[in-house]
Specification:
Elements lengths: L8 H13 L13 H11 L11 E5 L3 H19 L4 H9 L10 E8 L16 H19 L3 E5 L4 H8 L5 E10 L9 H4 L16
Length: 213
């Protein structure tokens, strides 16, 4: 039995720094992300664990201008509907937020879960079938961190109609949208999240989020 790798204190410090500087990016510079780098990010993302080794993640590179235009139109509709649910000062803050980088991001990546996959033979899914989707979220987090390590930013656009996105991208019926990602080099860098700077929501004290039983 061989020994595993040793991660020293400087590595752990860099890892913490990577976590701290992972941001949801919405403002992108004009620099292109190469196809090779995007493929490398995906290849490292799928090192994530998956329930029953089902590997349910499916990635769609959205390069067609017509499809991108339809995605942006869907975002605009959903964003207006979301704004209509806020009132007063909160509505004003919401309207001022930049909630997507769809127009500026050089790369668009839609990430789906294949909920009908037979890979993994259903192991671990009988009592918690949602673990298929959770597995894809884990892969997205891997991609986000490795992208940051390459100086690339990622923005998760959740203000979209998942069914519309699936239809626009013409994916198989059994695929469920998990994330629509904008990928590119950031125009600016910030250690604090944009929603904290905009006074939308401050970070919670982690001690308030832990229970003992």
């Amino acid at each position: 039995m061989s020994d595993g790798p040793t991660f020293d204190e400087p590595f752990r410090a860099h890892l913490l720094e990577l976590f701290q500087w992972r941001r949801d990016v919405r403002r992108f510079a004009g620099k292109q992300v190469s196809d090779k780098l995007l493929d490398d990010l995906i290849a490292q993302a799928v090192l994530a664990p998956s329930v029953g080794n089902s590997q349910p993640w499916r990635f769609v590179k959205v390069a067609d201008p017509g499809r991108r235009k339809k995605i942006i139109e869907d975002f605009q509709i959903c964003n207006q509907e979301a704004l209509d649910n806020y009132h007063g000062e909160q509505a004003q803050i919401y309207a001022s937020l930049k909630l997507s980088g769809l127009r500026d991001a050089p790369a668009h990546l839609a990430v789906f879960a294949d909920i009908e996959t037979s890979v993994g033979h259903g192991l671990g899914q009988r009592t918690m079938p949602e673990t298929l989707k959770y597995s894809v979220v884990g892969a997205i987090n891997h991609l986000w961190l490795v992208a940051r390590a390459h100086g690339v930013g990622v923005g998760w656009v959740s203000i979209l109609n998942p069914d519309n996105v699936g239809n626009i991208l013409d994916v198989p019926q059994g695929w469920s949208l998990i994330a629509y990602l904008c990928v590119g080099y950031p125009e600016e860098e910030h250690l604090d999240p944009e929603l904290v700077r905009a006074n939308w929501q401050q970070r919670l004290d982690v001690s308030k989020l832990i229970l003992e039983r």
